[in-house]
Design a protein that fits this description.
By secondary structure, this protein is mainly α. The protein has one domain. 81% of the residues lie in helices and 0% in strands. α1 packs across α2 and α2 crosses α3.
């Protein structure tokens, strides 16, 4: 026991924290890869990944990956929708994660 908190409670919080970290890592890696695939398809004049799908992944936790993908592959950088939605998603997820972390302390 640490400061009156049972060990099983602390271990459950660690499991949840690791799960959240893994979730965000997976979402962001997927989004980076999709931005790369979309850019390569655009260069080959092939059917591209829909904007709805790219933005949906940003909304569900892949905002940072979307931002990295936009910058790294120079993809969707001129699209105002992406310039507005992705930063908003990043801010919302940072606030949500911050509140989650503060509530666990």
């Amino acid at each position: 026991m640490i400061s009156g908190i049972p060990d099983y409670v602390i271990n459950n919080y660690r499991i949840v924290n690791i799960g959240i970290i893994i979730y965000y890592l997976i979402m962001n890696v997927i989004n980076i890869l999709l931005f790369k695939i979309d850019k390569s398809k655009a260069m080959k004049n092939q059917f591209r990944i829909s904007e709805r799908r790219l933005i949906s992944l940003c909304v569900f936790g892949g905002g940072l990956g979307g931002s990295i993908g936009m910058i790294a592959f120079k993809n969707k950088t001129g699209n105002m929708k992406f310039k507005i939605v992705i930063p908003i998603c990043i801010i919302i997820h940072c606030i949500t994660l911050g509140c989650f972390i503060v509530n666990q302390l």
